[in-house]
Design a protein that fits this description.
Blueprint: H1 2-26, H2 32-35, H3 39-62, H4 66-84
Helix pairs in contact: 1-3, 3-4
Length: 85
């Protein structure tokens, strides 16, 4: 579960960096969610799936604290990526 969650998180981050760095900064497309409507749902679906996979894989480590710890880490990641855009 952990490797699959890591793979999904990499896909989600790759889509986010593609939107922010390539489309917005390099190509100058500021409204990429209208021009490429499938990118935002793809990034959201892979991010939520990664969160579920990480919760399943790390449940035996942190028990019922797992969702709270991962929520804090994922929100930190979202805030870090949002600083770029």
């Amino acid at each position: 579960w952990f490797l699959f969650g890591s793979f999904l998180l990499i896909i989600s981050l790759a889509v986010a960096f593609y939107c922010i760095i390539y489309l917005e900064w390099y190509c100058g497309v500021s409204d990429y969610d209208n021009k490429y409507p499938a990118l935002v749902p793809l990034a959201t679906a892979t991010f939520v799936s990664a969160a579920i996979c990480f919760n399943i894989s790390l449940w035996h480590v942190w028990s019922f604290f797992t969702p709270f710890i991962l929520l804090t880490q994922f929100m930190g990641l979202v805030m870090l990526v949002s600083l770029l855009g």
